[in-house]
Design goal:
heterotrimer, A mainly alpha (497), B mainly alpha (376), C alpha/beta (531), B: mainly alpha, ABC transporter involved in vitamin B12 uptake, BtuC, two-stranded antiparallel ribbon, two-stranded antiparallel sheet, 14 helices, C: alpha/beta, Rossmann fold, six-stranded mixed sheet, 20 helices, 35% helix
Chain lengths: 497, 376, 531
């Protein structure tokens, strides 16, 4: 059991060993920060934007790793689906946040189809999925270019401001921020009040449908056991209280709370404090539960470790540069909520039958087959999920930029997402949500800092830029080498048994 | 006691003609047939719309020679069991380094004692090749040792090792202490240009050798001769004891070990030759192109080289010199003719050759990957 | 009574093409019975089990004749899954476990307990949430049932190898309707203590009314735990007996007993005393996965044909592979008094050995190269033959290949045909030709007749005797086929558990061979008898 472990030097050693890439990055970033001469305000602002922009994409890599397909270099294809969908939605006049949701809706079937095809392809080259993913991304890029350069306008006549002057092919850059699409940061800018209203009504409808279904099917409505409806009811009550407090989402009785809810950014300092408090309470509960209720022996290390991290983070936030840095940063609420929602959904999914099947397939195809699991089908589903999530991730990224570089927006998506994932401690065969989030923070810290540090230290921004490019490539090369190496060792160990 | 004669019937069966044809097509691979037919059709089409065919053919031949040695670099890598060398850019950057040093030596007057301009250029090229090949050999050995530790995942790793090598050298290009103003970014005093003009250095060194004209078709004899010579050397090497041992190590490592062959050493040999040829190849490419493409220039060259040899009929595990000759010709042929043909037919879309390059090269690699199943 | 037997296999016959591997075998098993299934390699045990489990390879090769009844009802399985639902389980020799999963997850693999969720109402059972509590409770129950006190939360990766076997058993027990369990060589990877424990578990399972088919080559275990037994030989039923009515010597005799056909006049008549020692092996250890050799010593005289036999996986194949340097080996190997450096690759070939590997497609041939290339390659690679001016000499290769094709009667379209397109027997002849091209002083052939047709078999065996008679070549032959060893060898060493149990004359009694193959030497039995 987790909380029966005792801290030992060995554990510390293995902690440092397992997180060596992350620790190395932390040190390099620290040096780079010192050398860059950036203010914490600038740095945190840039970082919060990048976390919101990239985390979703990185998370889309998780499921293929779990299902044993390795790092999915084919997420580029998901990004392409998003771009195709975006073009058509803008063409037909979609705008704002609702326009972006339409983009997601349109991108989904495209991504499902393409993900299915890539999954089929990967099934015919088991063991070479990664090189296959790199190549299939480039292959698809050829067709993508054909579609945007020639098919649109050349074969299907299209009249739009997005077309080139000759009418054949789409412009290099599509502005989705300005009139009439207004999609620039449309997700980032949704107010909390909006989110709250939608969430409340959605939850209400959901609970109503659930109750009706149970009544019709004559199933028990219970607050206990595996079939309990405790959680949805609880969530609905919380939402209802907040919703009523906000004056039913309107200006019925204007007060400070509603005005605060009219914001679309959450102050990072307060977010950290409130989040920290919440985490501390949860951890405290876990410790009390373990020691007092379950009376399990030993020290509950994990909660205590998290508690320590929370306290350190809190103390760090009181340090003036960090304090001013965080105080001046606003986190885009909806984007962050979507990312948190995805984390929860992935966690939930991995605990379903299909999720368990994916883990089994990822661990050993022969054993999974022997246990009656359809390996090929499971792998294809994993690829579809990854491709669809990548499409959503790309939508988040594009709305943040506010422009779409028609022919290059997808190009480096795979490279940067994968490099970040690996920096966070993921490997070809093993990964978690933690790796994705940690990776985005560390990798993008370096990305922000490297050019400035290069300019200050070596008198050349170019060096910083090439250095971060090298880091991205080298991190991936290193991870692939480590994986192949370990696999070889494991094979040898197995033979010797 | 024994009646073996009538148990095994004669296995000598004569296939009828159509079966043989179908088998040949299957063995050759449908994608290759499509590419070949497309090339012929495009050539015919170009003739119909009245383009200058001989001149184009001359161009195709020149690009053939330009790319040839880089494609040839795939053969030792594949034959020694390292799969196609996507990381040939490791050798390419070594070659670029040799070229840059040669340019600087030229600027400092190191070749001034040769007065004949043609020989002067060739001397510059030879120095670039020599330095490049030495660098490529050293890097290739290290790279080969790395690949020995990651057997079975060579391709994915070689892609990123190649990318990393390019990125490392990018940093070098910014800082390299070179004084030739032709190579340096104007106004800054340091850092190489994206494109370095070779006109005053070894540009055209081999292209202009014995160059002649038939009508509007230019034949770059020196370039082609050099390419054929390298192919011939490779062919001879593959027929030598060392070459055959290397091929066996790649074909079936256990068989090779049972024949007393050190498989790891043979694999390093293959990668080293491949990397050194990459260095050689880029100098030849550059002298014909007229420019050195620095920085991200070599990034995707490995992909083109891999695709070329696969189009020629090679697989992930086996390649012959013939595949290089045929594949490099066909792939470059199609790309060379696509640009003028497309501007002639549909003048308003740019980037047709790039599109074709992406689809053809990556399509053929994917095809080869799906075929590789059961190879190991 | 309908339920008298859990399993009735009646008059089963299976042929691969013309090759009949199981012929008229019947097997009847009662609930709670531990039924040992015995026989040499290739006797038809695994084919019989493949038929029982409805393996697709059986249907793909034309199905079988005869009937299979489970609890009195005739069944036709189309896949192993069908067999599982009918209540037949298998404990594999290789563990079908996922090391990174916990014990309970492994026990429930593919059959997880779940509860429905919102999404599962839309997308079906795949979106059900796992019910870890129930899974762990069930796992605990199954583990308790076989008397294992391992924690169901631990990861399998951390368990000792032996325990994995028990997790597998617990998984089978956990299946609700399990009626019949097949144990395929379950003790092969276990320590002695674990093996004893396993036999105890088998007994307690059978007491619960579950029938067991026990495939093993260890006769002592059969005597220990089994109640009944069926002995197969060459695909035919030899005997079905109750263990109480028999003894180890009888069983051994029944397993091996065959008229030794084609006993050649040459076999066993070689005058051992007069000849000098060709090969002397002392305390050879070979680290070959699945075929470990743990200290083997023997001497082979010049001109002798020395046989090495034994069951698969016991280490006989490890001996030639160790000498050849393909797997790490220790100990001393001397050839005509000169020691070999076993750590140097190619040393044995340099010193005058030649090998024909048991794995002709993997080790023996370059499948994409021509017959001629295959025949000349090793000679070229080791002794620089077939080169002219340092380059491949096609003309000499052609000449030599044509000679060899004629000499060994290789059926082919010509010397340039690719080795991969030849039939098994002809591939084996190419391997032999390649070895002969090295002009060896000692020829080591491993499983020379595995999977090849009768004609090629005869030719190869004849040629080996001829080689010794006419050229004085010493031959070491490793084979699973005792009959074949006894037909041409002068002496036969039987290997079990990585050691030589006995060296027997080809005309020694059948029972001696049978006992030796199950790891018991004749002298041991005699001692026991004396006690």
């Amino acid at each position: 059991m987790e909380n029966q472990k005792i801290i030992s030097p060995n554990m510390l050693k293995s902690f440092f060993f397992e997180n060596k890439v992350a620790l190395m990055f932390l040190i390099i970033s620290g040096v780079a920060f010192w050398a860059s001469g950036m203010t914490t305000v600038m740095f945190f602002n840039e970082l919060s934007v990048r976390i919101g922009r990239d985390t979703f994409l990185v998370l889309s890599l998780l499921i293929p790793v779990v299902a044993g397909l390795g790092l999915n270099f084919g997420i580029v294809i998901g990004a392409m689906s998003a771009q195709i969908a975006l073009f058509f939605v803008v063409l037909f006049g979609g705008s704002g946040a609702s326009g972006l949701f339409t983009v997601a809706l349109v991108a989904t079937p495209i991504a499902i189809l393409l993900g299915y095809l890539v999954g089929r392809l990967f099934n015919s080259m088991k063991g070479s999925e990664m090189i296959g993913g790199m190549i299939v991304a480039l292959f698809a890029a050829g067709f993508y270019q054909f579609f945007f350069l020639f098919f649109l306008g050349g074969i299907v006549p299209i009249e739009s401001r997005m077309m080139t002057s000759s009418g054949i092919g789409v412009l290099n850059v599509i502005d989705i921020g300005a009139s009439p699409s207004y999609m620039r940061q449309a997700l980032d800018n949704v107010t909390m009040l909006h989110i709250l209203t939608v969430a409340f009504w959605a939850m209400l409808v959901f609970v109503a449908i659930m109750l009706i279904v149970r009544l019709v099917k004559k199933q028990a409505i219970t607050m206990k056991g595996p079939l309990s409806i405790r959680r949805p009811i609880f969530a609905l009550i919380v939402l209802a209280i907040v919703y009523i407090a906000s004056g039913f989402g309107g200006m019925a009785f204007v007060n400070g709370f509603t005005l605060w809810l009219y914001q679309d950014r959450l102050n990072a300092l307060y977010a950290l404090w409130w989040g920290g408090l919440l985490a501390a309470l949860l951890m405290g509960y876990a410790i009390i539960k373990a020691k007092v209720v379950e009376k399990s022996p030993g020290v509950p290390i994990k909660p205590i470790a998290y508690l320590v991290i929370v306290i350190i983070a809190f103390l760090l936030s009181l340090w003036t540069p960090v304090y001013t840095g965080l105080e001046n940063v606003g986190l885009p609420v909806l984007t962050y909520l979507i990312i948190i929602g995805l984390c929860v959904a992935i966690k939930w999914f991995l605990n379903t039958r299909l999720g368990q099947n994916m883990r089994s397939v990822g661990q050993s195809r022969p054993v999974a087959t022997a246990a009656g699991i359809n390996v090929d089908r499971t792998r294809i589903i994993a690829m579809i999920m990854s491709t669809v999530l990548a499409a959503y991730g790309q939508i988040i990224m594009l709305q943040n930029f506010g422009v779409m570089n028609t022919y290059s927006a997808h190009e480096n998506v795979g490279l940067f997402a994968i490099a970040a994932f690996l920096v966070g401690g993921a490997s070809v065969a093993k990964a978690s949500i933690k790796n994705a989030i940690l990776g985005v923070i560390l990798f993008h810290s370096l990305f922000i800092l490297a050019p400035f540090a290069g300019a200050n230290l070596m008198d050349s921004t170019l060096i910083g830029e090439y250095f971060r490019e090298f880091v991205a490539y080298a991190v991936i090369a290193l991870a692939l080498v480590m994986h192949a190496w370990q696999r070889k060792k494991k094979r040898k160990a197995k033979e010797n048994e | 006691m024994s009646k073996p004669q009538d148990v095994v019937k004669s296995e000598v069966v004569k296939d009828d003609f159509m079966v043989i044809v179908r088998k040949r097509i299957a063995a050759f691979g449908l994608p290759r047939i499509i590419i070949l037919v497309a090339f012929i059709l495009m050539f015919v089409l170009a003739g119909i719309v009245g383009m200058n065919l001989p001149s184009f053919f001359g161009d195709v031949l020149r690009r053939w020679g330009m790319w040839g040695i880089l494609v040839l670099a795939m053969v030792p890598s594949i034959q020694s069991g390292n799969a196609p060398n996507f990381g040939v850019s490791v050798g390419i950057v070594a070659g670029l380094l040799g070229a840059v040093i040669s340019i600087d030596l030229n600027y400092r007057g190191a070749f001034d004692f040769i007065t004949n301009p043609a020989l002067h250029r060739i001397a510059g090229a030879l120095v670039a090749i020599a330095i490049g090949v030495i660098g490529g050999t050293v890097l290739g050995m290290l790279y080969g040792m790395l690949l020995n530790r990651v057997k079975g995942s060579e391709m994915a790793i070689s892609v990123y090792v190649g990318f990393s090598a390019v990125a490392v050298f990018n940093i070098l290009w910014v800082r390299i202490p070179i004084s030739n103003p032709i190579a340096i970014l104007p106004g800054t005093g340091s850092g190489l240009r994206q494109m370095i003009n070779l006109q005053d250095d070894f540009g055209d060194a081999f292209d202009s050798l014995f160059r002649f004209q038939i009508g509007s078709m230019t034949i770059h004899t020196g370039l082609l001769l050099l390419f054929f010579l390298m192919c011939f050397f490779m062919y001879i090497f593959m027929k030598s004891k060392r070459g055959m041992r290397m091929s066996a190590a790649g074909d079936n490592p256990t068989y090779a070990r049972a024949s007393g062959i050190n498989v790891d050493r043979m694999r390093i040999l293959g990668t080293t030759i491949s990397t050194a040829l990459g260095a050689f190849g880029i100098v030849i490419y550059a002298q014909s192109f007229g420019f050195l493409q620095m920085y991200r220039g070599p990034l995707m060259m490995g992909f083109t080289a891999v695709a070329s040899v696969l189009i020629g009929g090679a697989t992930i595990r086996r390649a012959k010199v013939f595949d290089v000759l045929f594949g490099a010709f066909l792939f470059n042929g199609i790309l060379t003719i696509a640009l003028p043909l497309s501007t002639q037919l549909i003048p308003d879309i740019p980037g047709v050759p790039e599109m074709l390059r992406l689809i053809i090269s990556n399509g053929i690699i994917l095809y080869a990957l799906t075929r590789a199943k059961g190879g190991r | 009574m309908q339920d008298k037997y859990v399993l009735e296999m009646d008059n089963i016959r299976k042929a691969y093409g013309d090759n009949v591997v199981v012929d008229g075998v019947s097997l009847k098993i009662k609930p709670g019975e531990i039924h040992a299934l015995l026989g040499e390699n290739g006797a038809g045990k695994s084919t019989l089990m493949n038929i029982l489990f409805g393996m697709t390879m059986i249907r793909d090769t034309g199905g079988f004749e005869g009937s299979v009844k489970i609890s009195g009802e005739e069944v036709k399985f189309h896949s192993p899954n069908d067999a599982l639902t009918a209540g037949i389980g298998m404990v594999h020799q290789e563990f079908m476990l996922i090391p990174a999963f916990s014990v309970s997850e492994n026990i429930k693999l593919g059959r997880e307990d779940t509860v429905p969720t919102v999404l599962s109402r839309v997308f079906g059972k795949n979106m059900d949430r796992l019910n870890h509590e129930k899974m762990e409770k069930d796992a605990r129950k199954s583990l308790d049932a076989i008397g294992m006190n391992i924690d169901e939360h631990v990861r399998v990766a951390g368990l000792p190898v032996g325990y994995m076997q028990f997790v597998e058993i617990a998984r089978e027990i956990d299946k609700l309707n399990i009626k019949l369990l097949v144990f395929d060589e379950p003790t092969a990877v276990l320590t002695e203590d674990e093996a004893t424990q396993l036999l105890g578990v088998m007994r307690s399972i059978s007491e619960k009314g579950i029938a067991i088919i026990f495939i093993t080559h260890r006769l002592s275990e059969v005597m220990d735990v089994a109640t009944d037994m069926t002995i197969l030989r060459d695909g035919q039923l030899v005997a079905t007996k109750s263990v109480r009515d028999t003894n180890m010597v009888d069983i051994a005799q029944l397993m091996v007993g065959r008229e030794v056909e084609n006993m050649r006049a040459t076999g066993g008549q070689f005058a051992l005393q007069d000849a000098e020692t060709a090969v002397k092996i002392t305390d050879l250890h070979v680290d070959m996965p699945g075929e470990n050799v743990n200290g083997v010593s023997f001497e082979v005289k010049k001109g002798e044909i020395f046989g090495i036999g034994g069951m698969a996986g016991q280490g006989k194949v490890g001996i030639p592979n160790g000498i050849n340097g393909l797997f790490p080996a220790e100990g001393s190997v001397e050839m005509f008094g000169k020691p070999l450096d076993l750590s140097r690759l190619g040393e044995a070939l340099d010193k005058g050995f030649a090998f024909v590997s048991e794995d002709r497609r993997g080790v023996g041939l370059l499948l994409d190269e021509s017959i001629g290339y295959n025949i000349m390659f090793r000679q070229m690679a080791i002794k620089n033959g077939f080169l002219r001016g340092g380059l491949f000499d096609g003309r000499r290769t052609q000449q030599h290949a044509k000679d060899m094709i004629k000499l060994l009667d290789i059926r082919c379209r010509g010397w340039q045909q690719k080795a991969g397109t030849l039939s098994g027997g002809n591939q084996q002849k190419v391997c032999l030709a390649s070895a002969l091209t090295l002009n060896p002083k000692v020829l080591v052939v491993s499983e020379p007749t595995r999977g090849i047709d009768i004609g090629a078999k005869e030719l190869i065996l004849n040629y080996l005797t001829k080689l010794r008679e006419e050229d004085g070549v010493t031959v070491i032959m490793v084979s699973s086929e005792l009959g074949e060893l006894r037909s041409i060898c002068d002496r036969i060493a039987i290997v079990s558990d990585g050691k030589i149990v006995d060296i027997l004359a080809p005309d020694a009694p059948d029972a001696d061979f049978g006992l030796a193959m199950s790891g018991v030497s004749k002298s041991e039995i005699n001692e026991k008898g004396a006690e």
